[in-house]
């Protein structure tokens, strides 16, 4: 799309020269011969750039500049000025003009200045856009949950986001620690400053030290140039130390010193580097227990633990599960460009009853997989869920009451077997081949057991719950293996 430029000059000759050559250069041109007309044009239309003469009759260029930047602060303005008044041009730049052209000018020069001004303004707009995207991705409101414990965490995030105090985030794997760390950054004063994340687990000590504090040229054989560490990159922003529990004792001491003194020495360096960095640390380990075992320094722990955010496991906030399911269904249907899908009540039941050892991450993966593998289907059933989620429901132990008289093992086992069979059949929509698969037994064995345990072979028909329950229906079983779709 062609960019729109407004030319404001009372000199008709200048307007013509500029209009002609800039439209030849591919821009769309409007022009105005007075300040008043320029202001009303800007009020009515959006321009990508304004070229504004400094000296205009009645309302002069400076006054016009002030008015149009108030109307559209993001629109770049380039001033035209006579040789004698370069100083006023500089004053104009302080007031928000992005550049100036001195009369008499050559057209190549004008095109260069215009091109640069437009490019800068694109970049700026793109940055604003990216930043907004980050904010919507990481804002507090994107952390899904309405359980009391999550509400308390949201309140705490808003309360401490802008403070410089160190935050320690703990919680099991997949509970959203990184999400919270980002929410803290993007909701605080430092949101427009860098957010730098370092994973302290899984890399050797010396590498991690180099990563954190950087080195100067010649510090070691491969150090061919100065390389700033993450502490320096995060200056004025936030440094997220993920998996802090994996940091070695010797590095813990160094980190503690930096936290205390707010300055450090890069490897091989002689000059201390000072930084203003907000630290957020996270771990899924039990730091208190590690302290007792002498694996985590107590002094560092208290330095980090100024504000503590403890994320609950998903099981502790199971009331949030439906909300999260909806959130991820929306997310992945949108991402994969498919119409909104939903889970059948049976699938919902299995999802609600599952224990989610992998927490939100596991739930997210399950939903992503279900959406990805279900193709044209709008309703996702148990068959779209991974085996372990269905299996857990099946192996749940029945509650046994051992009275003084004992109990008949055969009866209890038969009762248990019957319940398991019913569950599998329900999950399978009473398709026996499928139920047998779930139970990892042969179809003929299943039918034998059903007869022995008095389970009606066409149970669902009598109960009126499944359209697939007649004998013939078994031949049109839905495909369940991923590869069988398409
Ligand atoms: N409350 C939530 N709302 C929406 N998405 C969430 C929520 N909690 C976690 N997630 C998502 O779950 C996934 C795992 O979250 P995250 O990486 O923050 O977990 P973590 O606690 O850092 O895990 P680990 O200890 O394994 O590094 C991410 O994709 C994240 O977006
Ligand atoms: Mg993490």
The first-level CATH class name of the largest domain = Alpha Beta
Structural class: alpha/beta
Main β sheet profile: 5 strands, parallel
Mean pLDDT: 85
What general form does the structure show? flat
Radius of gyration: 34 Å
In short:
The chain contains 20 helices and 16 strands. The protein has a five-stranded parallel sheet, with helices on both faces. 47% of the residues lie in helices and 13% in strands.
Kindly describe this structure.
This protein has 486 residues and is α/β, with parallel strands linked by helices. The chain has 4 domains: 4-128, Rossmann fold; 140-310, Rossmann fold (3-Layer(aba) Sandwich); 316-395, Helicase, Ruva Protein, domain 3 (Orthogonal Bundle); 409-476, Arc Repressor Mutant, subunit A, CATH 1.10.10. The chain has helices at residues 12-24, 35-44, 61-71, 86-94, 107-138, 148-160, 177-186, 205-213, 230-233, 249-261, 287-292, 298-304, 321-335, 345-353, 359-373, 387-395, 409-427, 432-439, 443-453, 459-463, and strands spanning 4-8, 28-32, 49-53, 77-82, 99-103, 167-170, 195-199, 214-215, 227-228, 238-242, 263-264, 273-274, 278-283, 307-310, 342-343, 379-380. The strands form 5 sheets. A 5-stranded parallel beta sheet has the order 2-1-3-4-5, sandwiched between helices. A 5-stranded parallel beta sheet has the order 7-10-13-6-14. Strands 8-9 form a two-stranded antiparallel sheet. Helix 13 packs across helix 15 (359-373) and helix 18 (432-439) crosses helix 19 (443-453). The two termini are 40 Å apart. The structure holds adenosine-5'-triphosphate (ATP) and magnesium ion. Residues 143-145, 171, 173-179, 284, 327, 360-361, 364 line the site of adenosine-5'-triphosphate.
């Amino acid at each position: 799309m062609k960019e729109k430029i407004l030319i404001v000059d009372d000199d008709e000759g200048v307007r013509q020269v500029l209009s002609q050559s800039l439209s030849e250069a591919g821009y769309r041109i409007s022009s105005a011969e007075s300040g008043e007309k320029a202001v009303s044009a800007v009020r009515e239309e959006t321009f990508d750039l304004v070229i504004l003469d400094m000296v205009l009759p009645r309302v002069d260029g400076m006054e016009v500049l002030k008015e149009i930047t108030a109307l559209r602060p993001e629109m770049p303005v380039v001033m035209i000025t006579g040789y004698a008044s370069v100083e006023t041009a500089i004053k104009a730049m302080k007031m928000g003009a992005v550049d100036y052209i001195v009369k008499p000018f050559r057209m190549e020069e004008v095109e260069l200045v215009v091109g640069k001004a437009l490019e800068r303004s694109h970049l700026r707009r793109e940055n604003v856009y990216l930043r907004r995207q980050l904010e919507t991705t990481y804002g507090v409101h994107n952390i899904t949950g309405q359980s009391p414990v999550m509400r308390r965490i949201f309140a705490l995030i808003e309360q401490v986001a802008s403070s410089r105090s160190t935050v320690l985030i703990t919680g099991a794997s997949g509970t959203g620690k990184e999400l919270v760390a980002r929410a803290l950054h993007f909701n605080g004063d430092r949101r427009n400053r860098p957010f730098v994340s370092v994973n302290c687990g899984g890399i050797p000590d010396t590498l991690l030290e180099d990563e954190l504090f950087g080195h100067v040229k010649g510090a070691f054989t491969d150090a061919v140039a100065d390389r700033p560490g993450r502490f320096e990159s995060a200056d004025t922003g936030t440094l997220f130390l993920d998996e802090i529990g994996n940091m070695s004792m010797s590095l813990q001491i160094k980190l503690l010193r930096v936290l205390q003194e707010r300055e450090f020495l890069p490897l091989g360096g002689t000059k201390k580097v000072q930084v203003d960095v907000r630290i957020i640390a996270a771990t899924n380990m039990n730091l208190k227990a590690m302290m007792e075992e002498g694996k985590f320094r107590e002094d560092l722990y208290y330095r980090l633990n100024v504000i503590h955010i403890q994320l609950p496991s998903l099981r502790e906030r199971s009331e949030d599960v439906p909300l999260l399911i909806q959130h991820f269904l929306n997310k992945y249907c949108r991402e994969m460009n498919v119409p909104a899908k939903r889970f059948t009540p049976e699938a919902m039941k299995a999802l609600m009853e599952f224990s989610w050892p992998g927490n939100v991450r596991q739930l997210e993966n399950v939903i992503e997989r279900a959406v990805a593998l279900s193709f044209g289907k709008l309703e996702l059933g148990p068959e779209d869920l991974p085996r372990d989620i269905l299996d857990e429901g099946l192996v749940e132990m029945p509650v046994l009451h051992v009275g003084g008289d004992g109990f008949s093992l055969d009866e209890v086992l038969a009762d248990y077997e019957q319940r398991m069979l019913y569950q599998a059949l329900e999950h399978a929509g009473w398709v026996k081949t499928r139920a047998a698969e779930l139970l990892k037994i042969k179809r003929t064995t299943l039918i034998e057991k059903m007869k022995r345990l008095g389970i009606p072979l066409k149970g669902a028909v009598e109960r009126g719950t499944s359209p697939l329950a007649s004998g013939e229906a078994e031949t049109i079983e839905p495909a369940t293996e991923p590869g069988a779709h398409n």
